[in-house]
């Protein structure tokens, strides 16, 4: 008996070791080219900046982190909040939240529309959402640029219909970045929303109407609570890449309206302040982690309720 | 119910209009882009008639050819390695009672999905530029390695999904017939898993092909891929040539997604 | 089975490709964007059977940061004069001794004994020019020979201005606007400079590089930018005019240098010698529309460049032009901080 148990335990241990060996290549690659470098970057954020980029090896300081939040005035050396950085972080947060809300407003009815089609046509609608999703992000930002520029199709349409007589200046404004992000991240909202709406039990909706609820009440009290996991997942999927957006502001923002991603790039290029860039990156990651934590807790809670 | 004969419980006012508007928004920019790729004039704003001129010019442009070939090499290599690693990892993390470290593995494998790309990009810039100096090697290997890392989670998803839906009785039957584990894997598991592996490979391939940010920061001199080449061009004088390249790229993506879609459909 | 064999074969072929990325006849040039004539590259490739790749950068700082980080893989870089002392001091450049090369005799004497590279031990001239004003005369008809166009813009131009995102050129014009000297550390002047830039920036549309396209198309109506690009804009739209800021404007020269860790030094030297040939120097200018520093190249220039208002400085503005030199480190640090402040 004892020896049989021993053998079983040994076999199990051997099997687990085998499973670790099998997953080793994936874990090693991700460590070397994704996770490991993040730790190096964390270390860089505590180093002294080199004169022309890079860092001075072996010299440590908190300057990188200090200058995320504070700045010394050039002329009288007083310490104030680094409103340059804080306003860029604030713009990133604000634009990301608005993007998330806008994609939700457009994406929720769209997902609902798809979920209420007959089964065999649903796949076609999903496919239509998937195509832009798999299209290169840069190409989509570029396409948006051709739509919103002064002689672009949007301004031509508005002028032809007589709504405006001077072209609207959208390019190089926060609006351009916003339009670009909503357009690019819309599928990321629709797909998870659809996934949870597809499973929606319409008998509950029917029950609502039987109790003489209005359409709005059914939407608010029954449908939205039931698809909440999809709403949360979609919001996270849109919010995180919006916050770290780099290509869209670069292509549509004209170099004057920086977002966090561009500020980070600036520090590693022309700004020549790698420790500050590293600290800003860690700060960005921290915001993302908070959002993810919110998601995990929310998912756990709704899992406990419905599962 | 009889009192409300034509009452559609699924309807919500205005939803259909918003949905159709959304689809218009999704396709209008792409349609504009594609239309101007066929423009005969030099401009991306003035229509000068239908022409394939810019496709011809793009295909003759040596920088475009180089970048396209490089994109293909990187995507093929990265997707191949990522798919192999992801298949192994998927087998190691599915159809098993939970064991210590399983959750850790999930988090680890999905990590590239959770960190903003720009953060990974600058972190790789720091580390790889050091390694390039130390080793003196500055070839495509760095780009392939970086791409492989962020492709793994994408390859992993469909393979794992396929494994979880697979019936393990056939494999048990093989084992009962004294097949060695390797033989059972090759003759039974692998053929059953193949649709998942193909889907994973294609996802990884598209993801690698599309990457801009990480490539932009990791590339050495003369290592532009098609997306980073376009990024450089977009800031300069834009001719419909960029539209033509983008359109060709788009066609390839649509083709891959369609194949992916068909494979997944068969599976279900 | 055979798909596996094919896959293995493909994998081996790919490895071979990856390994041979640094082929023998190669040259990697790192240059400003939209600055290198493809015809020049084609001619060089055909003559020496060398495969050339050109990678763009958008500012001196970007180029310096990328090369300084190491592992860049470039052979040639083209820094501006005011950055040359940094490149040399940081030990990034190879002392290629172009002054010993066959075609060196063609270099204009004016550009041989230059302060940033006396006697040309490291570099050969690529192009030189000025930063000035470009305005669409249909939008604004007043005086354009002043930095006020972008610092105190007339109301017709507000919201339609693009300013080159190069720190030193912008600070130079602004310091001169307040009567200061370049590299001044006078805090009273610099405070005015910062406050003026902070006040002017909201009146600009962008700080971007696409002037050759967006000035003629009407996206921009006024720019502070490099003369060659403004000339290219004028050739597309004759309403564009060029102005020399009378308060003072910077003169620049970009020079071709070889990096110390270049892998294709011999090809890079061939390229240096190649571009000192008058006919080839003319090819450089014909594309980007800036002057080069090579004697006898004028005769090969396109007709539209001869006597062009962007290239021939009117006598009364000649004195206002001044060479942009590198400032001492403490002043440079101060300028960087002002620039960061402006760029928030």
Descriptive report:
- Chain B: It comes from Ancylobacter moscoviensis.
- Chain B: Required for the activity of the bacterial periplasmic transport system of putrescine and spermidine.
- Chain B: Belongs to the binding-protein-dependent transport system permease family. CysTW subfamily.
- Chain B: It is a multi-pass membrane protein.
- The complex is a heterotrimer of chains A (307), B (268) and C (344).
- Chain A has 307 residues and is mainly alpha-helical.
- Chain A has two domains: 44 residues; 224 residues, MetI-like fold (Orthogonal Bundle).
- Chain A is built from 13 helices and four strands.
- In chain A, the strands form two sheets. A two-stranded antiparallel ribbon of chain A has the order 1-2. A two-stranded antiparallel ribbon of chain A has the order 3-4.
- Chain A is globular.
- The model of chain A has no long low-confidence stretch (mean pLDDT 89).
- Chain B has one domain: Orthogonal Bundle (MetI-like fold).
- Chain B is built from eleven helices and no strands.
- With 344 residues, chain C is of the alpha/beta class.
- Chain C has two domains: 159 residues, Periplasmic binding protein-like II (D-Maltodextrin-Binding Protein, domain 2, 3-Layer(aba) Sandwich), CATH 3.40.190; 152 residues, 3-Layer(aba) Sandwich (D-Maltodextrin-Binding Protein, domain 2), CATH 3.40.190.10.
- In chain C, strands 1, 2, 3, 6, 7, 8, 9, 10, 11 and 12 form a ten-stranded mixed beta sheet that branches. A two-stranded antiparallel sheet of chain C has the order 4-5.
- In chain C, helix 7 runs parallel beside helix 13 and helix 8 crosses helix 9.
- About 3% of the residues of chain C have low confidence.
- Chains in contact: A-B, A-C, B-C.
- Chains A and C meet through helix 3 of A and helix 3, helix 7, strand 8 and helix 13 of C.
């Amino acid at each position: 008996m004892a020896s049989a148990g021993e053998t079983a335990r040994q076999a199990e241990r051997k099997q687990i070791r085998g499973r670790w060996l099998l997953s080793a290549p994936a874990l090693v690659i991700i460590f070397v080219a994704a996770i490991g470098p993040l730790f190096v970057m964390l270390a860089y954020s505590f180093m002294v900046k080199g004169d022309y980029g890079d860092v001075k090896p072996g010299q440590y300081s908190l300057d990188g982190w200090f200058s995320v939040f504070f700045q010394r005035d050039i002329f009288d050396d007083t310490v104030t909040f680094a409103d340059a950085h804080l306003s860029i972080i604030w713009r990133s947060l604000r634009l990301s939240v608005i993007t998330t809300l806008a994609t939700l407003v457009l994406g929720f009815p769209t997902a609902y529309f798809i979920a209420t089609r007959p089964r065999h046509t649903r796949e076609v609608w999903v496919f239509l959402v998937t195509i832009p999703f798999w299209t290169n992000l840069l190409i989509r930002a570029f396409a948006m640029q051709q739509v919103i520029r002064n002689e672009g199709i949007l301004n031509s349409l508005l002028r032809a219909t007589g709504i405006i007589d001077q072209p609207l200046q959208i390019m190089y404004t926060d609006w351009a970045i916003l339009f670009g992000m909503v357009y690019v991240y819309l599928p990321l909202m629709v797909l998870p929303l659809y996934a949870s709406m597809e499973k929606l039990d319409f008998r509950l909706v029917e029950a609502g109407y039987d109790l003489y609820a209005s359409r709005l009440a059914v939407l608010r009290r029954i449908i939205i609570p039931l698809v909440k996991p999809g709403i949360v997942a979609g919001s996270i999927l849109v919010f995180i890449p919006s916050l770290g957006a780099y290509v869209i502001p670069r292509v549509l923002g004209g170099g004057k309206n920086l977002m966090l991603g561009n500020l980070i790039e600036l520090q590693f290029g022309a700004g020549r302040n790698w420790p500050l860039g590293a600290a800003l990156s860690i700060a960005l990651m921290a915001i993302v982690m908070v959002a993810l934590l919110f998601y995990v807790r929310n998912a756990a809670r709704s899992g406990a309720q419905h599962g | 119910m009889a009192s409300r004969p034509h009452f559609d419980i699924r309807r919500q006012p205005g939803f259909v209009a918003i949905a159709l508007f959304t689809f218009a928004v999704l396709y209008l920019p792409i349609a504009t882009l594609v239309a101007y790729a066929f423009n005969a004039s030099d401009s991306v704003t003035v229509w000068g008639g239908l022409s394939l001129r810019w496709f011809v010019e793009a295909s003759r442009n040596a920088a475009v050819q180089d970048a396209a070939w490089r994109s293909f090499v990187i995507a093929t290599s990265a997707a191949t390695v990522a798919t192999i690693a992801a298949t192994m990892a998927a087998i190691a993390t599915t159809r098993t009672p939970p064991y210590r470290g399983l959750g850790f593995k999930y988090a680890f494998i999905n990590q590239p999905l959770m960190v903003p790309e720009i953060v990974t990009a600058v972190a790789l810039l720091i580390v790889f530029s050091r390694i390039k100096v130390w080793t003196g090697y500055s070839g495509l290997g760095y780009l392939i390695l970086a791409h492989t890392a962020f492709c793994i989670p994408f390859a992993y998803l469909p393979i794992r999904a396929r494994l979880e839906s697979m019936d393990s009785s056939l494999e048990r039957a093989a084992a009962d017939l004294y097949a060695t584990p390797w033989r059972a894997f090759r003759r039974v598991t692998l053929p059953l898993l193949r649709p998942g592996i193909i889907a994973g490979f294609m996802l990884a391939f598209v993801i690698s092909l599309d990457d801009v940010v990480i490539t932009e920061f990791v590339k050495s001199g003369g290592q532009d891929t098609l997306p980073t080449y376009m990024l450089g061009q977009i800031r300069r004088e834009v001719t419909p040539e960029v539209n033509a390249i983008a359109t060709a790229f788009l066609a390839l993506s649509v083709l891959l997604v369609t194949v992916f879609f068909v494979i997944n459909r068969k599976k279900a | 089975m055979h798909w596996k064999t094919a896959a293995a074969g493909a994998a081996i072929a790919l490895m071979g490709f990856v390994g041979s990325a640094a082929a023998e006849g190669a040259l990697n040039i790192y240059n400003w964007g939209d600055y290198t004539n493809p015809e020049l590259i084609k001619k060089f490739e055909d003559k020496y059977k060398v495969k050339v790749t050109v990678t763009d950068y958008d500012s001196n700082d970007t180029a310096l940061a990328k090369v300084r980080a190491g592992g860049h893989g470039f052979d040639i870089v083209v820094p501006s004069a005011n950055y040359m002392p940094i490149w040399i001091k940081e030990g990034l450049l190879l002392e290629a001794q172009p002054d010993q090369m066959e075609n060196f005799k063609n270099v204009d004497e004016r550009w041989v004994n230059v302060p940033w590279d006396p006697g040309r031990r490291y570099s050969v001239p690529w192009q030189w020019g000025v930063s000035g004003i470009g305005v669409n005369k249909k939008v604004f008809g007043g005086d354009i020979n002043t930095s006020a166009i972008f610092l105190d813009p007339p109301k017709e131009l507000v919201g339609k201005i693009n300013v080159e995102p190069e720190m030193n050129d912008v600070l130079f014009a602004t310091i001169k606007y307040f009567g200061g000297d370049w590299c001044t550390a006078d805090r009273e002047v610099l405070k005015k400079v910062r406050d003026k830039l902070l006040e002017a920036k909201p009146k600009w549309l962008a700080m971007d590089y696409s002037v050759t396209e967006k000035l003629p198309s009407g996206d921009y109506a006024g720019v502070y930018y490099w003369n060659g690009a403004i000339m290219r804009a004028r050739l597309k739209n004759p309403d564009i005019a060029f102005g020399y800021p009378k308060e003072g404007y910077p003169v620049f020269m970009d020079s071709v240098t070889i990096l110390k860790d270049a892998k294709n030094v011999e090809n890079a030297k061939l390229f240096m010698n190649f571009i000192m040939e008058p006919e080839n120097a003319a090819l450089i200018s014909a594309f980007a529309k800036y002057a080069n520093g090579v004697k006898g190249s004028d005769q090969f220039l396109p007709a539209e460049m001869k006597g062009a208002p962007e290239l021939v400085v009117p006598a009364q503005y000649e004195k206002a032009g001044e060479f942009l030199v590198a400032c001492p480190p403490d002043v440079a640090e101060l300028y960087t901080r002002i620039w960061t402040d402006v760029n928030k």
